[in-house]
Design brief:
Length: about 250
C-alpha cells in the first residue's frame, strides 16, 4: 500500500453459490477521496462492500484496509447499508441505535463508556438528529432513518466509510445535506467508497468513479470517463439513449 491509500483491493474474486460474482477486482481509495462505485443491478457492488467488511470470504486476491486485513479492521469501518437491510422494528431509540454502531469496537454486553457516549453525541449532531435522540427508530421517516444509519457509521469515527445507495428514496434537501456532510468528511481526511445508481450525482460529487460489472471496466475522474463506449460496456448494453443522456455523454 502507498502512504495515502486507506483501502486497496488487488486481484479480488468472490464466489457465491458456486458463481463467480467478482473477478480479479483492483480498486484503491485514498485518504480524503470519495470514490463512486457504479454498475448495473447484480454487478457485484454490494458484494464488494461486504467483502471489505469481512462479511464474505474472498476466493483470490487481497484486501488491505490501512495495513490491516478485513478481519482485523472489522469494527473500525463505517458502513451505511441499504435502508431496507436494517431492522427498523427493533424497540430502541435513535441514540441507542447510533451507539450500537460501536458494538464491534466495545463489545456486545458492555455498558457504553464515556468515549462511546461522546462519539454517539457527535455523530447525532453531525447528521442533525440530536433533537430526535429519544425517538423510537420505528417511528422515523425515510430521511430520518437514513441519517440514523449515517450517524451509526460515524459513531466509530471511521477512516473509511462505505455507503451503499445512500441517496435512494430521499428528497432533494436531505440528499444535499448528506452530500455536504460527505464532502466535509473527505476534507477532514475520511476515505469514502459509495455505491449509487444516481449517475449524474455520482459524476458531480465523486473525485473518482469505478465502473464495475463483475470486474472493473474503467476507473478515473468523472471528466475522463466521457467515452460512451465505456458506459455501454460497464452496463452490458449495446445502446441505451437514456443511460448516455443522463450522463450527458450522448453527444
Ligand atoms: N448470498 C448469495 N448467494 C449467491 N449469489 C448471491 C448472493 N448474494 C448476491 N448474489 C449474487 O451476486 C450478484 C451480485 O449481487 P450484488 O448484490 O453484489 O450486486 P449489486 O451490484 O449490489 O446490485 P444492485 O445494484 O441490484 O444492488 C447477483 O447476481 C446476486 O444474485
Amino acid at each position: 500500500m502507498t502512504g495515502d491509500e486507506v483501502l486497496s483491493l488487488q486481484g479480488v474474486s468472490v464466489e457465491l453459490g458456486g458463481r463467480l460474482v467478482l473477478r480479479d477486482v483492483d480498486l484503491q481509495v485514498t485518504k480524503s477521496e470519495q470514490v463512486g462505485l457504479i454498475g448495473p443491478n447484480g454487478a457485484g457492488k454490494t458484494t464488494l462492500l461486504r467483502a471489505v467488511l469481512n462479511l464474505l470470504p474472498t476466493s483470490t486476491g487481497t484486501i488491505d484496509i490501512n495495513n490491516r486485513t478485513p478481519a482485523q479492521a472489522r469494527g473500525t469501518i463505517g458502513y451505511v447499508p441499504q435502508r431496507h437491510d436494517f431492522v427498523w422494528d427493533f424497540p430502541v431509540d435513535v441514540r441507542t441505535a447510533v451507539t450500537t454502531g460501536r458494538t464491534h469496537l466495545t463489545g456486545w454486553l458492555r455498558r457504553p463508556t464515556r468515549t462511546d457516549q461522546e462519539a454517539t453525541q457527535q455523530a447525532l449532531e453531525r447528521v442533525d438528529l440530536a433533537d430526535l435522540h429519544r425517538r423510537p427508530i420505528g417511528e422515523l421517516s425515510g430521511g430520518q432513518r437514513q441519517r440514523v444509519l449515517v450517524a451509526r457509521a460515524l459513531a466509530v469515527r471511521p477512516e473509511l466509510l462505505l455507503l451503499d445507495e445512500p441517496f435512494t428514496g430521499l428528497d432533494v434537501p436531505t440528499q444535499e445535506a448528506l452530500t455536504h456532510l460527505f464532502r466535509r468528511l473527505t476534507k477532514e481526511g475520511t476515505a469514502i467508497l459509495m455505491t449509487t445508481h444516481d449517475l449524474p450525482a455520482a459524476a458531480d460529487t465523486c473525485d473518482r468513479l469505478c465502473l464495475l460489472n463483475r470486474t472493473v471496466v474503467a476507473e478515473g475522474p468523472p471528466d475522463q470517463l466521457r467515452d460512451p463506449a465505456i458506459w455501454l460496456e460497464a452496463f452490458g448494453v449495446t445502446r441505451s439513449d437514456q443511460l448516455l443522456h443522463s450522463l450527458g455523454v450522448d453527444r
